[in-house]
Amino acid sequence: MIAPTVDWKALEFKCLHEDSPSPKVDEETEAWYRQASADYKAGIKTGNEDLLRRSNEQLLKAAERGHIKAMNNLVVNYLKGEGVKQSDAKAVEWAEALVKRESGRGYYHMGVFLEQGIGVKQDRQASLVYFRKSADLGNPQGQLVSGKKLASAVAQSPSDERDLGFSIARSMLQCSLDQGLSEAGFMLGMHYQNFEEKMPEALKAFQASGKLGHTQSLWTLQSLFQEGKYSIEKDEARAACYKRLMQESEQDQTKRFPDIDKVCPLPPKKMPGV
């Protein structure tokens, strides 16, 4: 729980987007990173370990020149042991290198490591600091985690503090969603769903998440219109539309629905052909 004497001014959140602007690197370094990405995709698709090893060799060269995304990929690869020998210590090493460069990705990774005790001594209190710092630096995953944790922490607080906490948490989740993290839209929708007067905002959040292919958000929209929950009028046509998109998403997890606002528009817009 957040103490009654919390400094809400210090907790205020300003939305920043990661890689905006993106750190500059020379052409050769960027070429190494792009080749590493191509080799990695081909290696994963074909199960070719040589390609994965070659990918990490290119990543290492780019990372040593300060390429943020290359450094981030090395953290992930060492954690998973893809193309390299699995090593929590190496993952932490590269995460710390990102932190030194004030990268939101690095702070997010260190937050996870501290929370779960991966490669470092577990310290959940310290992890909150790293997650919040990653959020402030524009990392969408950090914004998602920080928003969820803050909303949960203030849920039982006095009304004034709860409203302040929820306002900050919503800003974090919205910022994360705006950067394309569909899970943030789902969590934002679930938050709004707790307040009947906020159901229009909940629908918009689920819709934005569904546009990004979030299956559970599409299922939620189908359920809401199928059953007429939370003062929403039953609408079988809309429910069937979201069900179709949900099934497509289940079959292809890379599926996106950029035209969802035309195919399955939210009320008061009419469904196509109706």
Structural summary, described in words:
With 274 residues, the protein is an all-alpha fold. It folds into three domains: 26-86, no CATH class; 88-179, Serine Threonine Protein Phosphatase 5, Tetratricopeptide repeat; 180-266. The protein has helices at residues 8-11, 27-46, 49-64, 68-80, 88-100, 104-116, 124-136, 140-154, 159-178, 182-192, 199-211, 215-227, 236-251, 260-263. α4 packs antiparallel against α5 (88-100), α7 (124-136) crosses α8 (140-154) and α8 (140-154) packs parallel to α10. The longest helix is centred in the first third of the chain and has 20 residues, at 27-46. The chain is globular and about 55 Å long. The chain starts with 7 loop residues before the first helix and ends in an 11-residue tail after the last helix.
Any chance you could write out the topology, listing elements then pairs?
Blueprint: H1 8-11, H2 27-46, H3 49-64, H4 68-80, H5 88-100, H6 104-116, H7 124-136, H8 140-154, H9 159-178, H10 182-192, H11 199-211, H12 215-227, H13 236-251, H14 260-263
Helix pairs in contact: 2-3, 3-4, 4-5, 5-6, 6-7, 7-8, 8-9, 8-10, 9-10, 10-11, 11-12, 12-13
CATH superfamily of the largest domain: Tetratricopeptide repeat domain
Q: Tally the helices: what do you get?
A: 14
> Fraction of residues in helices?
55-70%
Count of domain modules: 3
CATH architecture of the largest domain: Alpha Horseshoe
Largest sheet: none
Strand content: under 5%
Low-confidence stretches: none
CATH class of the largest domain: Mainly Alpha
Please report the distance between the alpha carbons of the first and last residues: 49 Å
Q: What Rg do the Cα atoms give?
A: 21 Å
SSE arrangement, N to C: HHHHHHHHHHHHHH
CATH topology of the largest domain: the name is Serine Threonine Protein Phosphatase 5, Tetratricopeptide repeat
Q: Structural class of the helix and strand makeup?
A: mainly alpha
Rough outline: globular
The residue-averaged pLDDT reads 94
Record field, number of beta strands: 0
